[in-house]
Design goal:
Elements: E1 2-5, E2 16-21, E3 32-37, E4 40-44, E5 57-67, E6 70-79, E7 81-86, E8 89-94, E9 101-109, E10 112-122, E11 127-135, E12 138-139, H1 147-150, E13 247-249, E14 252-254, E15 262-267, E16 269-270, E17 277-282, E18 296-302, E19 322-325, E20 331-336, E21 347-349, E22 351-357, H2 384-388, E23 397-400, E24 445-447, H3 462-473, E25 476-480, E26 489-494, H4 497-505, H5 512-524, E27 526-528, E28 539-542
Parallel strand pairs: 1-5, 15-26, 16-19, 17-21, 23-25
Antiparallel strand pairs: 2-3, 2-5, 4-11, 5-10, 6-9, 6-11, 7-8, 7-10, 11-12, 13-28, 14-27, 17-18, 19-20, 20-22, 23-26, 24-25, 24-27
Length: 552
């Protein structure tokens, strides 16, 4: 179909031809084909067409555009990923799982015919796919098809949280944030970014090591729920310890953490209750492995196709603490040493841990994914979607601190931790806690004091400033440790965050200028000595409002 666009005239009707696929990779046979008009303005609450999946589908739209020549702006909004090609050249690349996000890219076109291709994929929950073309200042028609008869209702506004790309579309508006953005970046900025709140997990006696960036898996991030908080992005109750803002009356003790070096501890977090069911096994292995032979079957777990957590290699010994949300949309099964070696294969874990209610406190009755503290492998993790956005991170973070700095006093742990590492009080054990600060124990809540002016710290990165804000408003819990001879401070992050950081900024959470920014923050942290079950986050009024209630 050819569409004429002379100068600033709007597109004629019935321009885009859509080919729909029952997978997220535009592969295999076409499930449906139709003419979708001059403006893509879809927000599907169910299947986009007869014979097409409601979730985990993709679309390729093509159109021939006749232009009189001039400047054009292509405005797109989508959930999840999209790519725009003009005459075979990729001009906009936002191919990742995300909440609905808006992007814009401008190009000057010569007079004549131009071939447009718009690829799109969607994973889970309501799908959004919108594209308009603005020629010389005049937008195309923007009316949205009626929902009832066409199954394409008017798109609803939702928070945006994209990641980075090597093709740099211009954002339609910057996300509201207290963190100044860097001067130049190839990362598209969303129109808005949702705040998140994920609780903090517990620790394990397994030492953590740095490694190269991990591939971003097919994430399980669904559409945000209008008027409330999405549990799959921001799990657990508003007054959970991991979502509770700090109080104004804090009893602080200097942590006195030295500037050693930074590393990361990655967590497989799988919150996709509608994903395909795959077998799960507990194999008891550490280092983590994908072995299923002789392993204990655990039943079926919803895991998105394409989500892969490879076995560690090269001396890399990750904890891989995490969790998977069951199909009931409520129960999180915590795990330690989680792996998945094939994109449609089984989920394996060394140890199946406690179960948490996604609507609850984020604390369990047993041992969570981090065996060294008993805390959750889902709560408090820095998420991929947060790294891809720019909004303030509104939940407590998680840190691992070496046994060299932790104190064995009072059992070696404090609330909300329920255990300390095995060997924490055994002289000569490589996990013996030998720190001299009795306030600094497993489970300690560390904060950046309110008296610290973030703007005067000399932080070089936007992410460093965002994390500083979070440490000053929510803090970070110590959830894990390493042996005395391994002394980095570890950010605890969702698996895939390193790759997202590398893609967006050119360095990981523990690399480049982020390493020096992080060490500045570590050296300034103090322990909230009056944090406890009756004074969560310390005493006094809250420094931030509580998050809205979960609405899905």
């Amino acid at each position: 179909m050819t569409v004429t666009l002379p100068g600033n005239e709007p597109l004629a009707a019935f321009g885009w031809r859509g080919e729909y696929y029952n997978n997220t990779t535009l592969s295999g046979g076409v499930a449906a084909t139709r003419q979708d008009g001059p403006v893509l303005a879809f927000a599907w609450p169910s299947a986009p067409a007869a014979g097409v999946n409601a979730d985990y589908f993709s679309v390729r739209w093509t159109m021939t555009l006749e232009s009189a020549g001039g400047a054009y702006q292509f405005n797109t909004r989508h959930d999840d990923g999209a790519r725009l090609y003009i005459d075979g050249a990729l001009v906009l690349d936002t191919w990742w799982d995300q909440m609905p996000a808006s992007y814009s890219v401008s190009r000057t076109l010569s007079a004549g015919a131009h071939q447009l291709k718009y690829d799109y994929y969607h994973t889970y929950a309501g799908a959004v796919a919108q594209l308009e073309i603005v020629a010389a200042g005049a937008p195309v028609a923007t009316s949205t098809p009626a929902p009832a008869a066409t199954n394409t209702p008017t798109p609803t506004a939702a928070a945006a949280t994209p990641t980075a790309t090597s093709v740099a579309p211009t954002p339609t508006a910057a996300a509201a944030t207290s963190t100044p953005a860097p001067a130049s970046t190839s990362t598209p900025t969303p129109t808005a970014a949702a705040a998140t709140n994920t609780p903090a997990p517990a620790a394990t006696s397994t030492p953590t090591a740095t490694r190269t960036a991990t591939p971003v898996p097919a994430t399980s991030t669904p559409t945000a729920v209008a008027g409330g908080r999405n549990k799959l992005l921001q799990p657990f109750a508003s007054d959970s310890p991991w979502n509770m803002p700090l109080g104004t009356s804090l009893s602080l003790v200097a942590a006195n953490l030295p500037k050693t070096f930074m590393s990361v501890d990655e967590e497989p977090i799988i919150l996709a209750p509608g994903a395909p069911l795959r077998s799960g096994y507990e194999n008891g292995d550490w280092p983590a492995s994908c072995r299923t032979s002789g392993a204990t079957p655990l039943g079926q777990f919803p895991v998105p196709d394409g989500y892969v957590i490879p076995e560690p290699s090269g001396g890399f010994l990750p904890n891989y603490s995490g969790g998977v949300l069951l199909g009931d949309g409520r129960t999180i099964v915590e795990m330690q040493y989680g792996t998945r070696c094939a994109s449609t294969g089984p989920l394996t874990m060394g140890i199946q841990r406690d179960r948490h209610d996604i609507y609850g406190s984020g604390l369990g009755y047993g041992i969570g994914g981090h065996g060294g503290s008993g805390l959750s492998g889902v709560a408090g993790s820095l998420r991929v979607w947060e790294v891809n956005g720019d909004a303030p991170i509104r939940h407590a973070l998680k840190l691992n601190i070496s046994a060299k700095f932790l104190s064995k006093s009072n059992g070696g742990y404090r609330w909300p931790a329920v255990v300390a590492d095995t060997g924490y009080n055994q002289p000569g054990n490589f996990m013996e806690y030998v720190g001299t600060n009795p306030a600094l124990r497993m489970g300690s809540l560390l904060v950046l004091p309110a008296t610290v002016d973030i703007n005067t710290l000399g932080l070089q990165t936007a992410m460093g400033r965002r994390l500083a804000w979070t440490l000053q408003n929510y803090g970070a819990y110590i959830v894990d440790s390493g042996p005395q001879t391994w002394t980095p401070h570890n950010w605890v992050i969702e698996y895939g965050v390193q790759q997202a950081m590398e893609t967006r900024w050119g360095y990981g959470v523990d690399g480049g200028p982020m390493n020096s920014d992080s060490l500045i923050l570590m050296s300034l942290l103090q322990v909230v000595d009056n944090n406890g079950p009756t004074s969560v986050g310390g005493g006094g009024a809250r420094v931030q409002p509580l998050l809205p209630a979960i609405s899905n």
